[in-house]
Write a structure and sequence with these properties.
CATH topology: Metallo-beta-lactamase, Chain A
Radius of gyration: 18 Å
Number of helices: 8
Helix content: 10-25%
CATH superfamily: Ribonuclease Z/Hydroxyacylglutathione hydrolase-like
Oligomer: single chain
Largest sheet: 7 strands, mixed
Distance between the termini: 5 Å
Strand order of the largest sheet: 6-5-4-3-2-1-14
Strand content: 25-35%
Length: 252
């Protein structure tokens, strides 16, 4: 299995429209962050976790030629609004794309993309989805995904564990019951928005504390705001921890 960071930015992306701070005007390509999502590739299968508003751009950049499933952490705009762009894969593969989400998120997807499910859209092509409810661990072509309940402020959302890796974006707190599911990890990926506290996101310092607690072999931070530049921030981190960047590929 290979994991690719499709995007590592916060909901605005980086650069932020109209901002002239040092990160937003940086010439370092690692400081250009599309909205947060990852790609999993295994045994000829391609699975995306979250379809951001930048999904088309991300798919072009990574030369994604097929898509076998989409898995959702939650349905805030920066994680779901690119879902319509899966229709090119419907056309290419001549089948509906399975989508996996918890009950709240499936309801949101049906509301946000009502033109798809109500089949009353008179113009243009419609994407085709095959919805599946996440109510516990599930398998995708032999790979087991374990949902990891966390809180994004007061909103319950999901992270996921697969093999010896875990991906938890958009969280502020992790319940003890979920922490107990995060032992013996080779790779831990966590939200780390910025240094300053935020009501719905983990800070760099909070996520570093979780790394010390959970002791993964390696840790990567994502959902990064423009307050943290890639190179200068990485110089302050422990040797086994770094900010992720768009296009980073990790073998699992």
């Amino acid at each position: 299995m290979t994991l690719t960071f499709l995007g590592t930015g916060t909901s605005t992306g980086v650069p932020i429209v109209g901002c002239d701070c040092s990160t937003c005007t940086s010439s370092d390509p690692h400081d250009q962050r599309t909205r947060s999502s990852i790609l999993l590739e295994f045994d000829g299968r391609v699975v995306v976790i979250d379809t951001t508003p930048d999904f088309r751009q991300q798919a072009l950049r990574e030369k994604i030629e097929r898509l076998d499933a989409v898995v959702f952490t939650h349905t805030h705009a920066d994680h779901v609004f690119g879902l319509d762009d899966v229709r090119v894969f419907n056309l290419r593969q001549k089948q509906a794309i399975p989508i996996y989400a918890d009950g709240r998120s499936l309801q949101d997807i049906r509301r946000i993309f009502s033109y798809v499910f109500e089949a009353k859209y008179a113009a243009g092509g419609l994407p085709q989805f095959d919805p599946h409810l996440i109510d516990g661990p599930f398998e995708l072509w032999g790979e087991r995904l374990i949902p990891l309940p966390v809180f994004h402020g007061e909103l319950p959302v999901l992270g996921f564990r697969f093999r010896k890796a875990a991906y938890i974006t958009d969280f502020s707190t992790i319940p003890e019951s979920t922490l107990a599911m995060l032992g013996d990890l080779e790779i831990l990926i966590l939200d780390a928005l910025r240094h300053k506290p935020h009501p719905t996101h983990s800070t760099l310092e909070h996520s570093l504390g979780l790394v010390r607690l959970l002791k993964p072999q390696r840790a990567f931070f994502t959902h990064i705001a423009h307050e943290m530049a890639h190179e200068s921030t990485n110089t302050t981190l422990p040797p086994n921890v770094s900010l992720a960047h768009d296009g980073l590929r990790l073998p699992l």
